[in-house]
Amino acid sequence: MKFAVIGTGAVGGYYGALLARHGFEVHFLLHGDFEYAKENGLLIESKNGDFSLESINAYGRAPDMPPCDVAIVALKATQNHQLASILPAVVKKKGTVVLLQNGLGVEAEIAAMLPEAAVIGGLCFLCSHKAGPAHIRHLDYGSIRMGQFSRDGGAAGITEELRFVADVFGKAGIQVYLADNLGKARWEKLVWNMSYNGLSVVLNATTDRLMNDPASETLVEQIMAEVIGGAGACGFVLADGFARQMLAATEKMVAYSPSMKLDFEAGRELEIHTIYWRPIQAAADNGYEMQAAAMLARQLEYLDRNNRA
Amino acid sequence: MKFAVIGTGAVGGYYGALLARHGFEVHFLLHGDFEYAKENGLLIESKNGDFSLESINAYGRAPDMPPCDVAIVALKATQNHQLASILPAVVKKKGTVVLLQNGLGVEAEIAAMLPEAAVIGGLCFLCSHKAGPAHIRHLDYGSIRMGQFSRDGGAAGITEELRFVADVFGKAGIQVYLADNLGKARWEKLVWNMSYNGLSVVLNATTDRLMNDPASETLVEQIMAEVIGGAGACGFVLADGFARQMLAATEKMVAYSPSMKLDFEAGRELEIHTIYWRPIQAAADNGYEMQAAAMLARQLEYLDRNNRA
């Protein structure tokens, strides 16, 4: 049983290293850190205990990798244009892809690339970042909410492939929660992502600061309400009080920089397309205008372009 | 004929100095620069030619000023709570107040403080800033659009008081355009102010950069359209193509930092209340929700509080 990690960064590197450490055969695709990782392995600093993998199966190009049973995709969504050339080479025909990204719409694209594969989406509640070449720092959290993509558009339920992947991750010490409806799970995560990610960049603020000012807290609440409206328009009715729960959970978190803020600070392209425009478009296709989210997305586009210029 | 300048800064200091230089009797109320200006007068660096007033009638407290025929109010709107104690002491009972501020709703407050005075609103197209104590740098433009406040709520038309003030300013070399409907003129200025002021702060961008990026240009256009909608709800139907004209005029301008951006950079409190919340409330009172402007206003509130903390 072979595992591939496509994108060995703060997310893929962390989870892939946990799998490898627990004895699974993991093949890591790297880009900038390839040579370094091939020489030195991977170093994980973690609140659960530091560890290193002194030698890993490191690859600089997908065609050099063996066909794998499970491919964990943890590229930045801005690099997803590479998937069409990577995945068919790396995933066995009836293999499984686990997409560890936020946003919307990517599972359908992967399913189209791999007509017989199982496609699973994973929503990570993870606070980690790259601290240096092949060096990942895990600060907090680490659970994943996983659901299977349904090729017929409905809820896939809890499938055999989903249970298998969850079991493997569980053995590696990763807490996995199963979702029978991936679409709904993605919209639930968007309630958090579309509010905190964008506002944290535009207002240059960690979550605690956004929650401690009445104006920014109101904006968070407004955008959450809008996302819940968009979810409903798309057929996913979120539970009463869902936003309130999420606000309360965020208030209890440590000062947190959402991934988009970390990307912005590192000068990386922001995942505006999958986290903002895809859900905005999905809601609009169902007659619901997400105007506040669209305004935030445009502000992010401006800031992103100028940040990278 | 005595003139008072209430707030001798980038706006009041500039226009007041022009009046004084042309022989009018001007009494300047200052705050932080009082002692310095009393000793050294005022220095105006201007694209139209530098000049200085070696000695001015400088006052640190309103009660020390003589009753004046015309009071030019050029405080930051965030200081308007001082007007109730200043104006009755400084303006003759049947005198005239010329309010040189952006935003909405202040003339009505002044009219209530001075039941027999004429109240004129002036919208300045001026690029100037304080360069040092009693030292003003005039970079560009300088015209004022003036209209009279009507106590009965309609258009005041071109009144005798308005012509008189325009004539005085004109003698001092200041280009004045008359507006027969101050309410409409204020909303027209808000089309510019509510879009460029807020976005320039939130996106940390001068007007040229806002116009040169498709995302920020779209935001400018959206907010302009919303302000025009708000104006219409309040009974002020702006001309077809008004926004387009304003966009074109702004594109022809030099790289420009709106006053709110200058305030932000100087750590001064932003004029969010008069430039955003007052028009948003006026539109809401007439059944029109300015949601984009409200979102921008909340972002500004967060940034303003943190900027001054």
Q: What topology does this entry show?
A:
Two copies of one chain form a homodimer.
Chain A: E1 2-6, H1 12-21, E2 25-29, H2 34-40, E3 42-46, E4 51-53, E5 57-59, E6 68-73, H3 83-90, E7 91-100, H4 106-113, E8 118-132, E9 135-148, H5 160-171, E10 176-179, H6 182-202, H7 207-211, H8 214-233, H9 242-252, H10 259-265, H11 272-285, H12 291-308
Parallel strand pairs in A: 1-2, 1-6, 2-5, 3-9, 6-7, 7-8, 9-10
Antiparallel strand pairs in A: 3-4, 8-9
Helix pairs in contact in A: 6-8, 6-10, 6-12, 8-11, 11-12
What features would you describe in this structure?
2 copies of one chain form a homodimer. By secondary structure, chain A is an alpha/beta fold. The first copy, chain A, has 2 domains: about 180 residues, NAD(P)-binding Rossmann-like Domain (Rossmann fold), CATH 3.40.50.720; about 120 residues, Orthogonal Bundle (N-(1-d-carboxylethyl)-l-norvaline Dehydrogenase, domain 2). The first copy, chain A, has 12 helices and 10 strands. In chain A, strands 1, 2, 3, 4, 5, 6, 7, 8, 9 and 10 form a 10-stranded mixed beta sheet that branches. In chain A, helix 6 crosses helix 12 and helix 8 crosses helix 11. The model of chain A has no long low-confidence stretch (mean pLDDT about 95). The interface between A and B is medium-sized, with 22 and 21 residues.
